[in-house]
Amino acid sequence: MADFLFEPYAPVSIPIARGGLFAVRRIYCVGRNYAEHIREMGNDERDPPFFFSKPADAVVIGGRDMPYPPQTSDLHHEIELVVAIGKDGSDIAVGEALEHVYGYAVGLDMTRRDLQGAAKKAGRPWDMAKGFDHSAPIGTIEPAESIGHPSAGAITLSVNGVERQRGDLGEQIWSVAETIAYLSQFVTLRAGDLIMTGTPAGVGAVVRGDVLDGRIEGVGTVRTKII
């Protein structure tokens, strides 16, 4: 066995509702998947899906606090359905896509909006706006064999008990199956991958001390406090 220069980092994992841990490999995020959010951001809702990524170690679990990130004064919340991939595949057909899903969770795609705006204006990548430390609080994963494959249901986010975002999974422009099929044309999806499927309208800024509570009907919850 090769000697490592330093001790390898422990795998990132998310608790599974019925017991066990889901080891996270990659996190793919869908941009602009709810029409109202697309309109509020001033974009064209007819565009095909596009993707950006977060590192696995951006995950925050167990309702733990999220440190306010450096180099921003405009940190935004985005509540999302998270798809946990449990079976490898590439060039997956839409009709077979859900066979690759292990389960679902509720997540937050936290965004340094000012950095994202500057990157957009300059035609640069969004990495530092989306893929920073602690930028992906995620709740417990519910296996699909227990809850099915939710295609409708309320998705909401409250800050300090006041509702900020509300939508329905049925309003997604690209369904989970379509998203998996499309993404798998570009990369091989593998067990351990997560897909964050976009956010409804109502995104907005949070500050230190704010408590975020997200919920998706039939899926679960996510909670974090900004410190």
UniProtKB/TrEMBL annotation:
The keyword DNA-binding is annotated on this UniProt entry: no
Keyword ATP-binding: no
Record-annotated Fumarylacetoacetase-like C-terminal domain positions: 27-226
GO MF, one example: acetylpyruvate hydrolase activity
InterPro entries according to UniProt: Fumarylacetoacetase-like_C, Fumarylacetoacetase_C_sf
Keywords recorded for this protein, A-Z: Hydrolase, Metal-binding, Pyruvate
Protein name: Fumarylpyruvate hydrolase
Species whose genome carries this gene: Devosia limi DSM 17137
